[in-house]
Amino acid sequence: MGTIVFFYFASVIVVTAALVVALRNPVYNALALLVMFFHVAGLFVTLHAEFLAVIQILVYAGAILVLVWSKNSSSLAVSEKLSYFNADNR
User: Fold this and answer.
1) Of 37, 13, 33, which Cα lies nearest the Cα of 23?
2) Which domain holds residue 69?
3) From CA 27, how far away is CA 24, in angstroms rounded?
4) Contact in structure between 50 and 44 (CB atoms under 8 Å)
5) What is the mean pLDDT of residues 48-74?
6) Count of the separate structural domains present in the chain
7) 24 phi/psi in degrees, rounded to 5
8) Which residues, other chains included, contact 27 with Cβ-Cβ below 8 Å and sequence gap of 6+?
9) What CATH number is given to the structural domain containing 8?
10) Contact, 27 vs 43, CB < 8 A?
11) Model-level pTM?
12) Is a pLDDT exceeding 70 seen at residue 81?
């Protein structure tokens, strides 16, 4: 049973890590990163490292993902403003 759970977490981590690199939409990119962080935490729980799982959720999924989302929202706002100014020039 433990092997099946390990391969589930490992396969989801690999797929979502590939999606983080491959996706072009920054919102979907951040969501794939969030799913990857939670599955890494689940993998830590299966290895009986509960402290690392909690730290994974608090530090990575909490703090770093907020930074990614704030960067994405500011870049989307800038691109909307630029498209507005480019539309006036035509």
Assistant:
1) 33
2) 2-88
3) 9
4) yes
5) 83
6) 1
7) -95, -25
8) 72
9) 1.20.120.1200
10) no
11) 0.73
12) no
